[in-house]
Amino acid sequence: MDWDNIEPDRYRLMNKNFTPGRAGHQIRYIVIHHNAGCLSIDQIWQVWQTREASAHYQVDVEGTIGQLVNDTDTAWHAADLLRNQESIGIEHANSAGPDADWPISEATRESGAHLVAALCRYYGLGRPAWGVNVRPHSETGQTSCPYRLGPNGEYGNAYITRAQYWYDQMGSATPTPAPPKETPVTDDQTALLRQIRDNTADCRAMLMALSAQDMGDPGVTGPYGGWSQTGYRTRTDLLGAIGEAVGVPGARDTKKEK
Ligand SMILES: [Zn+2]
Known about the structure:
Blueprint: E1 10-11, E2 18-19, E3 29-34, H1 41-50, E4 57-59, E5 65-67, E6 74-75, H2 81-85, E7 87-92, H3 106-122, E8 134-136, H4 156-172, H5 187-215, H6 218-221, H7 235-246, H8 254-257
Zinc ion binds next to loops.
């Protein structure tokens, strides 16, 4: 079990008897159940094939955690639709039957409590507490489930204390350092950046215009460019021709050389 990322020991996902999604509802609490049976992960999956019921997790007698319905989906384990939409259901296997008054192994209780803590951390539900973010299936009075694991059952107190212990343990781990925040861009900075960008575009357009003027129309004037009014000379060539005509040393009319 990856407690930080609530990755279960095993997936055994239901193919029926749950509702995809949560109809926009947030997860607000966890509902605690016992199997009233000594079921493995596969066995409870089988039971829910023929019974219109399901829960998100099954903790087996060894403490192995199986996921049967994804947390993002609505399992059918609580008294009504809204309760199902707002909760995560955890089932705990019994280690013996009614003759032994439905006991639950220490491994199951320990894993279940740890799972409660991890879910409370992961979903930001707060420190586990009965009646607040951890509720017995029996809260509506329609069932005795989770019986000995409930707040008034003999395991209930130790179970929630253990969940609180694990919750505190998870909280005291060295927190992952937050990534450095990006400096927010102010309106002034946005305006300045826009101005620079616009000016850059203006400068580029001006250079292209100048360059085009210097080149003239190569389609008409050949590879060296130029303009009809300068005798198909570029501005540089025209300056050379003028220079030669007025006797500037070294200046020459390249057009004459052709
Ligand atoms: Zn129940």
